[in-house]
Amino acid sequence: MSKKILIMLGPAGSGKSTQDKLIENEFGYKPFIMGDILREEVKKGTTLGKRIHALIKDGHLVTLEMASDLIFDKVKKSKAKKIIMDGFPREFYQSVVFDYFIKTNNYKLMGVIHLNLSRNESIKRLLNRKRHDDEIKAINQRLDDYHKITIKAIEKYRIEKKLIEINGEQTIENVFKEIKTKLQKIKGI
């Protein structure tokens, strides 16, 4: 059996990681969280890790090459047959490259979950986290990048009829209930 892949997209603070865990428990999809993969590389102190740290510190997204190399390597080496990609692909070109990666490895993209969340709600949730990388300037930069860049990938998946729109402003339980209902309609999920 080839690998089945879900993608989880949403602005910072939309609850992607929380929903990843719930999807893992219900459907068996192992989360591959881009942020965790990047932080792991930074922690290693490699040259790539230092470049990633500089970008993240200023609230910017990492380059296509950096993200692709890291994530493709992780996916290929994983024994998991069901994977949920959290935060990747974020950009239109990443989505094109990721589609090629999926196709050439005979994997199957099952759907792209998009957690819709207003800018105000994103900021409120991120400020409540009180994490170092969630200072207001970085928050605004991350949200600006998301709305300028990620929206193009989202539109691509909408046109391809792969997008699963979810109201991210609900409670955690209701967001998952909506995700579960929509995923159960996908053949072979």
Written description of the protein model:
The structure is a single chain. With 189 residues, this protein is α/β, with parallel strands linked by helices. The chain has a single domain, classed as P-loop containing nucleotide triphosphate hydrolases (Rossmann fold, 3-Layer(aba) Sandwich). It is 57% helix and 15% strand. The chain has helices at residues 16-27, 34-44, 47-57, 64-77, 92-104, 119-129, 136-159, 172-183; strands at residues 4-9, 30-33, 82-86, 108-116, 163-167. The two termini are 13 Å apart.
Read across the widest sheet, the strand sequence of neighbours is 2-3-1-4-5
Order of helices and strands: EHEHHHEHEHHEH
User: Radius of gyration in whole Å, from Cα?
Assistant: 16 Å
State the CATH architecture.
Answer: 3-Layer(aba) Sandwich
Class from secondary-structure proportions: alpha/beta
For the record, give the distance between the C-alpha atoms at the N and C termini, rounded to a whole number. 13 Å
Shape: globular
- Uncertain spans, ≥5 residues at pLDDT below 50? none
Say what oligomer this is. single chain
Question: Beta-strand level of the residues, as a percent range?
Answer: 15-25%
Number of domains: 1
Helix content bin: 55-70%
Largest sheet: 5 strands, parallel
Total helix count? 8
CATH superfamily: P-loop containing nucleotide triphosphate hydrolases
CATH class: Alpha Beta
Keywords:
189 residues, alpha/beta, Rossmann fold, five-stranded parallel beta sheet, globular
Topology of this structure?
Blueprint: E1 4-9, H1 16-27, E2 30-33, H2 34-44, H3 47-57, H4 64-77, E3 82-86, H5 92-104, E4 108-116, H6 119-129, H7 136-159, E5 163-167, H8 172-183
Parallel strand pairs: 1-3, 1-4, 2-3, 4-5
